[in-house]
What we know:
7 copies of one chain form a homoheptamer.
Chain A: H1 5-10, E1 18-22, E2 27-35, E3 41-50, E4 53-62, E5 67-71
Antiparallel strand pairs in A: 1-2, 1-5, 2-3, 3-4
Protein name (chains A, B, C, D, E, F, G): Putative snRNP Sm-like protein
GO cellular component, one term (chains A, B, C, D, E, F, G): ribonucleoprotein complex
Keywords (chains A, B, C, D, E, F, G): Ribonucleoprotein
Amino acid sequence: MTKRPLEILDQVLNGQPVIISLKGGHEIRGVLQGYDVHLNLVLDRAEEEVDGAVVKRGTLIVRGDNVIYISPSVE
Amino acid sequence: MTKRPLEILDQVLNGQPVIISLKGGHEIRGVLQGYDVHLNLVLDRAEEEVDGAVVKRGTLIVRGDNVIYISPSVE
Amino acid sequence: MTKRPLEILDQVLNGQPVIISLKGGHEIRGVLQGYDVHLNLVLDRAEEEVDGAVVKRGTLIVRGDNVIYISPSVE
Amino acid sequence: MTKRPLEILDQVLNGQPVIISLKGGHEIRGVLQGYDVHLNLVLDRAEEEVDGAVVKRGTLIVRGDNVIYISPSVE
Amino acid sequence: MTKRPLEILDQVLNGQPVIISLKGGHEIRGVLQGYDVHLNLVLDRAEEEVDGAVVKRGTLIVRGDNVIYISPSVE
Amino acid sequence: MTKRPLEILDQVLNGQPVIISLKGGHEIRGVLQGYDVHLNLVLDRAEEEVDGAVVKRGTLIVRGDNVIYISPSVE
Amino acid sequence: MTKRPLEILDQVLNGQPVIISLKGGHEIRGVLQGYDVHLNLVLDRAEEEVDGAVVKRGTLIVRGDNVIYISPSVE
C-alpha cells in the first residue's frame, strides 16, 4: 500500500512541530497549519536558526519551490 | 482545519509591515498591498537592509519566484 | 482593498524612471514603456551601473525571469 | 521491453531501504513508502549523513525537484 | 500607450546590430533575424567577446532562457 | 531525414552501456532499461566514478532534469 | 522577413558540423541529426574539449535545457 506524499502532511496539521529543510541552508521548525499542491506551507510558531541563535518568526508562508524536505517526526 | 497558504495573506493586507525573505539574501520589510497566485507581491513603504544601512524603496513589485518566505507577524 | 501586482505597473508607464533589480546583481534604471504577464519589460532611456560607471543602454527588452523587483517610486 | 522509470519504484515500496541522492550533496537512505508523478517521495526510517555522522530523520517528505537519482538496490 | 515587449523586436529585425546580454556573463552582438515567444533568437553576423578578443560566430540560434536583456539600440 | 532525440534511445535499450553526463559533474555508466518524455531514465548495472573510484550503484532511476547528455556509443 | 529560430536548424541537418555551447562551460561540436521543440538535440560524430584534449563522444542526445546557443556556421 502506497502513501501519497502530500496526504502525509494531513496527519501533522496542527500537531507537533515539523522541520522544514530549505534550499540555501535554511532550516525552519514550526507547526504546520496548511499547505497546497505546490508545497507552499503555512507554519505557526516558526523558529529559524541563524548564526547559532534561534530566531522566532511567528507565522510564515513558505514558497514551495524552496523546500528540500519536510520532516514531520523526529525519532 | 487547514489554512490555505495564499489566503493567509489576505489577513495582513494593508496592515502591519511584513518581512519578505528573498533568494540571494535580500530581506525586505513593507506593507503588503497586493499579491497574485504566483506570489508576485506589491509592497508599500518598503525598506531593504543593504550593507547594514536601511534603504527606503517606496513601492515595490516583487516577482514571486524570488520569495523564500513571507512573515506576516513577528512575535 | 487589494492591488494586483501587474496592474500597479500601468500607473508608471511612460512616467518617471523606475529601478529594476535583476538576479546576478544588475540594477537598471529607465522609463517603463511596456510589460507582459511574464514581467518581460520594455525600458526606454535605460541606464545600468557597471563597475561604478553609468552606461547608457537606450531601449532594453528585459526577460521577465531575471527580475527580482521593480521599484516604481523612490521616496 | 522497456521499463517506465516511475513504475520501477513500485517494486521497492515498503521493501529494503533505498538511497536518494539530492542536489546540494544531500544523500538520504530510507524505506520508500510513496511517491507521485513529480517524484515527490515519502521515506520512512530516513537517515542522512551530516558531517560524517548519521542523523535519524524519521519520516521525510522530499520535494521531487531536489532528486538526482534513486537507487533501489545496491550490488 | 503601452508597447508589448516582443513586438519591439519586430522593429529591429534585419536592421542594425543588437546586443544580447546572457546569463553567465556572455555578451553577443549581431543582427536579429528572428525570434519566437520563448525569446529564442536567430542572430546573423554574431560576435562574442571572449577573454578580451572578438570571436566571430556567424549565425547563432540562442535559447531564450539564457537571455537577460536585448538592447536594440545604443545611444 | 531527421531523427527525433528521444527515439534514438529506443535503439540502445538493454544494449551496450551508455554514459550519462549529469549536472554537478556526475557521470554514470549503465544499461538503459527505460525512459520517459522528461528524460527520466532507468539504468541497470550503473556505475559512478566518485573521487577516482568506481562505485557500483545497481539499478538507478535518474530524474531527467539532471541530464546534460546521453552518449549511447563511444567511438 | 523573419526566420523562426528552430526552422533554421533544418538547414544544417546532416550537414557540416555545428558548435553547441552548453551551460557549465561545455562546448560540443558534431553533426546535427535531429532536434525537437525543447531543443533536445541528436549529434553524430560529437567531440568535446576536456582539459585541452578533444574527446570523441560518438552519438550524443543533449537535453535542450542545457543549450546556450547553437552555431550552425563559423565564418
